[in-house]
Design a protein that fits this description.
This protein is mostly helical. The protein is built from 5 helices and no strands.
Amino acid sequence: MTFPFMEIVRMIEVPGGFFERLQSIALVIWIMALFTSTSLYQLLAVKIINDIFSPHQKVSWLSTAIVFISFIIAFLPENITELEKLGSSITYYGIGITFVPIGFGFLTVWMRKKTSPAMRSLD
């Protein structure tokens, strides 16, 4: 089952026959939710990248570049299997990006506590 949400909506029947097909309504709501969440992710990406690389000036082309890169990445997979592979590789990359610096930070603090007598007095 590729899209379980749509399969569940397809099974729902409203008594009275007022709504014959709830799929179109559910699809509209689903697309609106996806659009708002993607817009928020894009806004946060622009804000974070702008704060990290140029905190004192506003970069006007950054939003366009992020949208273009996202657009290119969206057309890389040709079928659902490649899309799942791309999603899992991005997930592993994100986990690595998150936990490797945290591990290095803990390792650095541990090494500094072990070697520095001033840090031992703080314990």
